[in-house]
């Protein structure tokens, strides 16, 4: 199944609902990943993105052979400046894994429990229209089994993020306002009785991290993850609309029509995403994070088990979602943990083998077209990757803010 573009998410709810994946039956002989053939298949898959209309693509891979960097196309359609592997970009919902790590570390320190309910930490915040914070645990926020409505599905919010983008690009939202939008709607299901991706879950998770620590979730991410791992190119901009250099431009179609004009959406206030997706990073920093996370260097063993305890998402093939990360089996039988991220003009994906030894991160500076699932398939499956008509079935529904 082809990765859903951020544009479809923007129009359908700003980024795909489910960070889920569909497993394919492995071929009789599984080929080695992209590293075995010098990343030839990955290079070809990246070039195919540009041939399909994406302005530019970049990526970095870390495996037993070292670090490989690649790019194709342009970072700026006006100047023709090429895309660079070290460019910064908005990562959208890949932010969620960082927020999850903060809460899991806080649990390891005895400051909270995944079984704590939301009402305990945020009294009165999740209430009304059938919402009851006393029935929703921290764990259910992190694995999207809370049933709480996704605020970016709200029709008025969706309108502001798409057709009303230019009138609202500098608008500031507080976490309380975002949760308030969700509380105007009934839950999708009773807590623990289903699975549905909801950005509201992670806005609440960020609020809890702040209540526990007495500091902002951004400062907790910086203190606990970015500084220890040396992730110097990763930032949480808050309400700042501009991006640090170097970076390319971000391009979006803000309408459903295939002939809709392409807009430069680089500059925006990301507070509408908050703890669900405000982060800016690089492919190199994302690989550093995923390598440490899956390699067991960020969490104690009990919390690592919780991170990787995946609940079924209802997608074909038995895909699962853990606590801020998702898992899938690719067409060649390789299993990866991953997350996608989508925000105006930027589509990203970060993935890793279960041991953290083979990581890969990619970004497109477009949200209306592109198939990052096929690029990930190419990296890990090489010549064995067999995308179905219309895109890869190894990873599906990946983008992020919705």
TrEMBL record:
The keyword Signal applies. GO terms for molecular function: hydrolase activity. Coiled coil: none annotated. InterPro entries: AmpC-like, Beta-lactam-related, Beta-lactam/transpept-like. Keywords: Hydrolase, Signal. Residues 1-28 form the signal peptide. SUPFAM superfamilies: beta-lactamase/transpeptidase-like. PANTHER family: D-ALANYL-D-ALANINE CARBOXYPEPTIDASE, D-ALANYL-D-ALANINE-CARBOXYPEPTIDASE/ENDOPEPTIDASE AMPH. This is Serine hydrolase domain-containing protein. It comes from Streptomyces stramineus.
